[in-house]
Design a protein that fits this description.
Blueprint (H helix, E strand, L loop, with lengths): L3 E2 L6 E4 L8 H23 L3 H16 L17 H20 L5 H16 L11 H10 L3 E5 L4 H9 L12 E3 L9 H11 L6 E5 L2 H9 L3 E5 L9 H6 L2 E2 L5 E2 L5
Parallel strand pairs: 1-8, 2-3, 2-5, 3-4, 5-6, 6-7
Helix pairs in contact: 1-3, 2-4, 4-6, 7-8
Length: 261
């Protein structure tokens, strides 16, 4: 590692979040632990609200689809009013959420509830998005040099905006020209990077993608996108082949933009 020159044709830098701009531990330990620890309290506090009822309705529908899966947790309808019945249904939702999270599922129903819980947690200051300290100064430099900067993460666009809107560096959303999530396609499929380029309005080789995941790097490269793999504390280790094959950086400051000379 050291200095990595950015190819002259690059006009846009596409950033992964987890393990790239943000420690993996923040996502796993802070964000997901917050959901597990607070889901019951959140449901009790917001149960009567329309948004919460919609979230529970989606989870119930997902639970019906999952009924044949091993260990699946059904969510009953409230058959009567009363504190005891309400607690029974809430506990079923809590158990369902914990079960889905234990399998690292990414269902729309689970993501939606998580998104609403995180929104409340960020807004009240219970959670702040963690950003590696080299990230913001580097992005400011890239933008001054005329680069566009985008985010591409498996977390929803809403979750991305919360993380950067309520971050340890303050609200830094103005640093990004746009956000992509898996609605544009999975990160391990090359077609997703072609769609992103079309959406940005450039060729795939006008983009440099920074990620910590070699499978994503490989998919982007197949689409003729430039790639660098980011090595951060807590990230999964790379094989010797991956280390010798990919351009590696351990800090955004290692990228050298020809246009900034």
């Amino acid at each position: 590692m050291g200095v990595l020159p950015v190819p002259a044709e690059v006009r846009a830098i596409l950033l992964d979040i987890e393990g790239t701009t943000t420690p993996i531990a923040f996502v796993q330990e802070t964000l997901f632990s917050y959901i597990k620890d607070n889901v019951k309290e959140y449901l009790r506090a917001h149960w009567e609200e329309e948004e919460c009822q919609r979230d529970v309705g989606l989870l119930r529908k997902q639970a019906q689809e999952d009924s044949s899966l091993d260990g699946a947790v059904p969510i009953p309808l409230e058959s009567s009013s009363g504190e005891e019945e309400l607690e029974r249904v809430i506990q079923a939702v809590v158990d369902n959420v914990h079960w889905q999270m234990s399998l690292d599922r990414k269902t729309m129903a689970l993501k939606q509830l998580q998104g609403h819980m995180w929104r409340a947690a960020y807004a009240t200051g219970h959670v702040k998005g963690e950003i590696f300290e080299d990230v913001v100064p580097a992005i400011r430099k890239w933008r001054e040099a005329g680069m566009k900067v985008y985010i591409y993460s498996s977390g929803s666009i809403e979750a991305q905006k919360l993380l950067f809107g309520y971050s340890t560096e303050g609200d830094i959303l103005e640093l990004f020209d746009g956000h992509f999530d898996t609605k544009i396609g999975p990160k391990v499929e090359s077609e997703s990077y072609r769609r992103i380029a079309a959406s940005i309005g450039c060729a795939t080789n006008n983009i440099l993608f920074l990620t910590d995941v070699p499978r994503e790097a490989s998919a982007a490269e197949e689409a003729d996108t430039h790639v660098a793999v980011v090595i951060r504390p807590g990230n999964a280790g790379l094989t010797d082949d991956e280390k010798s094959y990919y351009s590696l950086i351990s800090s955004f400051t290692e990228l050298f933009l020809p246009s900034s000379t």
